């Protein structure tokens, strides 16, 4: 069922997962990937602040591009966090193997930062959402088999969670949509709040 927002919405991301979540929820939106350069390390030893900063950088990049002239820009960044370090997107197969070995048999934090940027007056609304994700202990053979699927490419934490009965991952706390890359439950409440005339 289509959901009509009283403002234009532009997704500042080329993420297939974020696009899927918005489309599945019934929203109409444009896509304008930010191509913003993301920092590789958190500056404040806090994943919450890291995703807040990166989401803002993505929204700002699209706002400065002047390709969007009205409505809201929606930007998000999702990363894992373990041992006080960001778990970013793997650089290659070897890096993905390192990440999977690090996460195997452990619970890690998964943070998404969301930034909504109104183009007309540069009003910005930001928040961050946490999920806890447990990866079951993987054998060396299971890791290599997973690497062969190439599902880890472009994914923070070197994994893309399946919506139903993921064979490797379990959400201990938080929402599935947040782990996919956009916390839809809280985002929909935010859309309702932003739609109220002020």
Question: Could you name the key traits of this structure?
Answer:
single chain; 198 residues; alpha/beta; Maf protein; 7-stranded mixed β-sheet
At a glance:
By secondary structure, the protein is of the alpha/beta class.
Describe the structure.
It is a single chain. The protein has about 200 residues and is an alpha/beta fold. About 35% of the residues lie in helices and about 25% in strands. The protein is built from six helices and seven strands. It has helices at about 15-25, 45-65, 95-105, 140-150, 175-180, 185-195, and strands at about 10, 30, 70-80, 85, 105-120, 125-135, 170-175. Strands 1, 2, 3, 4, 5, 6 and 7 form a seven-stranded mixed β-sheet that branches. The longest helix has 19 residues, at about 45-65.
Helix/strand layout:
Blueprint: E1 9-11, H1 16-24, E2 30-31, H2 47-65, E3 72-82, E4 85-87, H3 93-103, E5 107-118, E6 124-135, H4 140-149, E7 169-173, H5 176-180, H6 184-194
Parallel strand pairs: 1-2, 1-3
Antiparallel strand pairs: 3-4, 3-5, 5-6, 6-7
Class from secondary-structure proportions: alpha/beta
Number of helices: 6
Q: How many beta strands in the DSSP annotation?
A: 7
User: Within the CATH hierarchy, at the fold level, what is the topology?
Assistant: Maf protein
Counted up, domains total: 1
Q: What ranges have pLDDT less than 50 throughout 5 or more consecutive residues?
A: none
Provide mean pLDDT, rounded.
92
Strand content: 15-25%
Sum up the overall morphology in one term.
Answer: globular
Protein name: Nucleoside triphosphate pyrophosphatase
InterPro entries: ITPase-like_fam (IPR029001), Maf-like (IPR003697)
Subcellular location: Cytoplasm
Keywords: Cytoplasm, Hydrolase, Nucleotide metabolism
């Amino acid at each position: 069922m289509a959901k009509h927002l009283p403002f234009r919405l532009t997704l500042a991301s080329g993420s297939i997962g974020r696009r899927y979540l918005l489309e599945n929820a019934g929203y109409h939106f444009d896509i304008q990937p930010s191509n913003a350069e993301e920092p590789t390390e958190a500056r404040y030893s806090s994943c919450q602040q890291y995703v807040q900063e990166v989401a803002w950088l993505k929204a700002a990049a699209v706002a400065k591009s002047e390709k969007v002239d009205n409505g809201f820009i929606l930007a998000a960044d999702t990363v894992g966090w373990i041992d006080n370090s960001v778990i970013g997107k793997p650089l290659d197969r070897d890096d993905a193997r390192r990440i999977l070995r690090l996460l195997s048999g452990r619970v890690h934090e998964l943070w998404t930062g969301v930034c909504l940027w109104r183009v007309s007056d540069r009003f910005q609304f930001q928040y961050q959402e946490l999920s806890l994700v447990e990866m079951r202990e993987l054998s060396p053979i299971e890791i290599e088999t997973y690497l062969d699927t190439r599902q880890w490419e472009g994914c923070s934490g070197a994994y893309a969670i399946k919506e139903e009965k993921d064979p490797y991952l379990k959400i201990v706390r938080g929402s599935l949509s947040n782990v996919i890359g956009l916390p839809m439950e809280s985002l929909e409440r935010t859309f309702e709040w932003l739609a109220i005339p002020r």
